[in-house]
Amino acid sequence: MEVWLSILVGILFTAGVYLLLHRDFVKLIIGIVIISNATALFIFAAGRIVREEAPIIENEEALPQLEAFADPVPQALILTALVISFGIQAFALTLFKKLYDMPGIEEIDDLKK
Questions:
Q1: What SS3 state is found at 7?
Q2: Following DSSP, what letter does each residue of 33-84 receive, concatenated?
Q3: Which residue, 5, 14, 39, 107, could crosslink 45 as a Cys pair with Cβ 3.0–4.6 Å?
Q4: Any idea what DSSP says for residue 107?
Q5: pLDDT at residue 54 greater than cutoff 70
Q6: Buried b (16+ CB within 10 A) or exposed e, 74-84
Q7: Among the listed residues 76, 83, 80, 40, the one whose alpha carbon sits nearest the alpha carbon of residue 55
Q8: What element of type H or E holds 1?
Q9: Of 73, 14, 17, 78, whose CA–CA distance to 43 is shortest?
């Protein structure tokens, strides 16, 4: 499962960087969204994917094997990363809407004029 998730993360990063290199504002925003989702998937895959038990240890004397639990820290980091990525996406959409309202600006190269 982690191998397929790693391949998916690589494909998403590649597609996101490809879209970031375009000169169109819409493709730039889509690239930002794809890269932020790829980052969340990368952190999720780094925390191990385990479906057996929740990471709650009730009796400390009888510690179970830690391989049966997923690491909860990356999952908490994903929530933070999602909130930050939504903020960046909202800021980028607002910024690019302002740019579209300006006459004569349709691509990034038009900003140099």
A1: helix
A2: HHHHHHHHHHHHHHT----SB-S--S-SSSPPPGGGB--HHHHHHHHHHHHH
A3: 5
A4: B
A5: no
A6: beebbeebeee
A7: 76
A8: none
A9: 78
Q: What is the pLDDT of residue 52?
A: 65
Average pLDDT over residues 8-14: 95
Q: Which residues of 13-42 are buried (b: 16+ CB within 10 A; e: fewer)?
A: beebeebeeeeebeebbbbbbbbbbbbbbb
Please identify which residue in the block is written with the tokens 């930002």.
32
- Which amino acid does the sequence have at 37? N
Give the span between the Cα atoms of 14 and 81, in whole angstroms: 19
Q: How many Cβ atoms from other residues are within 10 Å of residue 108's Cβ?
A: 13
**HSE-up of 16 (CA within 13 Å, CB side)?**
15
pLDDT class for 34, splitting at 50, 70, 90? very high
